[in-house]
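Case 280 in the screening queue. Each case pairs one protein sequence with one candidate compound; here the compound is flavin-adenine dinucleotide. For every case the pipeline is the same: read the inputs, emit a complex structure as tokens, and attach any notable structural observations.

Predict complex for case 280.
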Amino acid sequence: MNKPAISFEFFPPQTAEGAEKLIVTRQRLAALKPEFFSVTFGAGGSTQDRTLDTILQIQCEGYEAAPHLSCVGGTRENISALLHTYKNAGIKRIVALRGDLPSGMASIGEFQYANELVSFIRAETGDHFHIEVAAYPEFHPQAKSARDDILNFKRKIDAGGDSAITQYFYNADGYFRFVEECQKLGITAPIVPGIMPIMRYSQLARFSDACGAEIPRWMRKTMESYADDVESVQAFGRDVVTQLCEKLIAGGVPGLHFYTLNQANASIEILQRLGYDSAQ
Ligand SMILES: Cc1cc2nc3c(=O)[nH]c(=O)nc-3n(C[C@H](O)[C@H](O)[C@H](O)COP(=O)(O)OP(=O)(O)OC[C@H]3O[C@@H](n4cnc5c(N)ncnc54)[C@H](O)[C@@H]3O)c2cc1C
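Case 280 output:
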């Protein structure tokens, strides 16, 4: 089977212990030779320092590191400063997002949508960064309509986005349809599926309710029937996600981006089943 490029996403650890564990996770995932590791950014800048520290550490270890940067609640001045910090540190790839305003934070800041952030990055730093943007094959929960959401996605590409990573999904057909609709609008940028391995059903249901990613009814019902039997949920999840990746690879996806939640096992097992070599 063809093996598209892979990448892994982490969130910045909150404790020294979490940071130590993440180093081990990263070493194990690095054996699969990912193109890059990305690190999320708490909207409103809440994780700014931890995102930066984790990114610099990944880079020091000799891997390509891609910080996420969300603009909601931000100012031109602080985003510009962060961009130049990353540029001076030799970072070459950024995942540019709007983010969601944390509760209690009143001001949306100086950017309303991610396309404005992409334009700003290009104006400030020219072609230095490869800019990834977010895409939603099942549509963003706040989108006025499916059509509007695709047109808004196009704005980000037109503003200078080089490629996209999608929200996770479990329905390959929805992804392929989304890509087809984008191509009809002349979008040629690669749209890499975001893959969410399944670790705990309650956690996945919570994420999915918040971000609008659908868990098909047959999956929900099956996982609900396992109740507290985490092993059965995980075994089911690995089968389902491996089959999803097989369909995506057979359909010619340009890459696979894994939402690891800072865990290595599930991603490694799925990728081994797909034929990726994880020998150190
Ligand atoms: C791969 C990936 C990584 C992520 N990483 C993070 C992270 O690190 N930190 C974080 O806080 N969040 C992250 N998120 C979540 C993301 O921030 C949220 O989904 C957020 O609600 C939307 O961000 P966006 O960049 O897609 O926004 P946008 O592209 O701005 O879209 C947001 C909404 O506004 C609409 N819209 C866009 N442009 C316009 C316009 N010009 N006029 C009118 N409507 C418009 C869109 O249709 C959509 O409904 C990530 C999501 C993905 C898919």
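Case 280 observations:
- The chain has a mean pLDDT of 95.
- The pocket of flavin-adenine dinucleotide is lined by residues 40-41, 43, 68, 70, 95, 97-100, 113-115, 134, 140, 142-143, 148-149, 152, 155-156, 165, 167, 194 (CB under 6 Å).
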